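Aim 2 progress update. The chain analyzed this quarter is reproduced below.
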Amino acid sequence: MKFPKINFDDMKNEGTGSVTAHERRKFLKLGLAIAGVYAGGKILSLTSIVGTAHASGGTSIVKRYPYNPHYSMVIRQSLCIDCERCVDACNEINNVPEYGYRTRILTKKYTGTLDKRVEFIPVLCNHCNDAPCVRACPTKATYKDPVTGIVRMESKKCIGCKTCMLACPYDARYFSAERHAVDKCDFCWEERLSKGDTQTGCSSACPTGARTFGNLTDPDNIVYKLVHQLEEQIWVLRPADDTKPNIFYMKGNIRSVDNILNEQKFKYFDPSNV
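Predicted structure tokens:
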């Protein structure tokens, strides 16, 4: 199922101002179709993530950096131990209700006779450069920040139609009854970055360094180095959707990547201190 396309080369995709009424109508119809298909469960399943993840070099995935700073996150999947400190920190910092989520950890269990591995896959908003949720929103409640490129929500403009939730290929949004609006990850912009912090709550909380947050436009930044190193393959979720996501995945179990990470000192966050 294809989403309507817009010319991202001519815009930074803030809101739906340059999306035609015809495109908006197509999205509303698409929402009804998706609701019919996925009414019984999650739009994003672990099987679909693993099945469609495509490994390729970072330089081919990262096609352009239209923002400065261009915030991004690299997730070293093999280092995730499912401790959920990232989830706890996110919920605490951003006042996420018990039923909601801004980030999750999906579990993949291998059932082969000899293969008893379990893999954990952290998932959050991908802050796409060509975000379907932004194109789908009829009120511009969800938009790309023109400076940072973070996909954000303006709750007062949200009418609760949930079209953005249906349009998101990553199932990264939920409806907040308290806010009377859709809520999602904003890279902790409101609670941390806008106040001078340089790390998200989840990246600070991770005890293994599985989540690394930074700036893709800075060659000296740890995220830039991880994405552009050549030894380890990286991938994005649902590459066929061509959303130009800013969350990158890698196994991260090789010495060269470890050496890169050693250049950055991690300050672990304890949500109990908030």
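Residues 9-267 form a domain with the Alpha-Beta Plaits fold (CATH 3.30.70.20). The radius of gyration is 18 Å. These observations will guide the mutagenesis experiments scheduled for the next reporting period.
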